Automatic annotation (TrEMBL):
Pfam families: ABC_tran. CDD domains: ABC_MJ0796_LolCDE_FtsE. This is ABC transporter ATP-binding protein. Belongs to the ABC transporter superfamily. Keywords: ATP-binding, Nucleotide-binding, Transport.
Amino acid sequence: MIQTIGLKKVFNTGGEKTSVLKGIDFSVQKGEFVAIMGPSGSGKSTLLQLLGGLDVPTEGAIKLDGVELQKKTEKQRTIIRRRKIGFVFQSYQLLPTLSVYENIAFPLHADGRKVDSVAIHELLNAVDLKGYDKRFPYELSGGQQQRVAIARALIHQPDILLADEPTGNLDRERSSDILDLLSAFHQDRGQTIVMVTHDLFAAGYADRIVLFKDGLIETEVQREDDDYAEFLSRFMA
């Protein structure tokens, strides 16, 4: 599905170089739900940007279904993003002047594709927002806005969904709702998900947790591993 090989990212700010990723070998299989954790500045959000083709690495390769993203032009990466990748952000990033329906349809318009009204209403049902199609973002709670953002990210049936702190602005109850929703899309539809989170409760929804530290993968654990429960309890302590 998606793989990185020797991935490095160096930022040059004011003549000062900062190495954020220091040689990451990482892969996600089709239908997998992976949570990426780590302290601020550990490189996890930078990795997500690279996986989504929003930036290019300083060194190394990113392969999406065998296609090396770093070798593509910005225009080619944009086309790949619009057709193969869905994004969910902490801040929702809904367009305030568009209705819920129009926000969900936006990726289809951007890619020059026909808007599928039936698919939009099916997604609205799936995210428990039936009847909200004509409302605007300012009329919605934070949790409802994030549900719209998830529907928008999935309307073009992406191969992979990248979620950057999707519950970061929500309380525990609303966070649980969003995580249950992501889990349902993963379990029922086989949606591949990579989620960056600071919240171990959120990470517990994933098949695999990958822990970053200082630009490297420190450790990872899978749900079926014998030490999975111990891993969770150790970090919750």
